[in-house]
Design a protein that fits this description.
With about 120 residues, the chain is mostly beta strands. About 0% of the residues lie in helices and about 50% in strands. The chain has no helices and eleven strands. Strands 2, 4, 5, 6, 9, 10 and 11 form a seven-stranded mixed sheet that branches. A hairpin with a 4-residue loop joins strand 7 and strand 8. It starts with a strand and ends with a strand.
């Protein structure tokens, strides 16, 4: 599976962005998908994950109520809708795919990673 993340860019605090993660290869619907982010000088952190069917999701506490993860298995694409963005959301955002289909919060559970897309939130 190859993953291509897109949709990042500059945005003012309070604004919104939608990230997309397009997957190539077979069996996208059998993978759990996740979004992670890495801010300058910090470790990569979990943001959100969704199971293979889109029926179960999980989020890091700092984005609950503001971010929403979704997927469209007919388009082989996962999404991260980000609302009410804050400067502390500034980071490179990565999408990832995990075999097994159940959602995962740990980066070590993921088998494939996209190249990252930069989100910059200004105050």
């Amino acid at each position: 599976v190859q993953l291509q993340a897109s949709g990042g860019g500059p945005v003012q605090a309070g604004g919104s962005l939608r990230l997309s993660c397009a997957a190539s290869g077979r069996s996208f619907s059998s993978y759990a998908m996740g979004w992670f982010r890495q801010a300058p000088g910090k470790d990569r952190e979990f943001v959100a994950t969704i199971n293979w069917s889109g029926t179960s999701t999980s989020y890091v506490d700092s984005v609950k109520g503001r971010f929403s993860i979704a997927r469209d298995n007919t388009r082989n694409t996962a999404y991260l809708q980000m609302n009410s963005l804050k400067p502390e959301d500034t980071a490179v955002y990565y999408c990832a795919a995990a075999r097994g289909g159940i959602y995962y919060r740990s980066s070590t559970s993921y088998d494939y990673w996209g190249q990252g897309t930069l989100v910059t939130v200004s105050s």
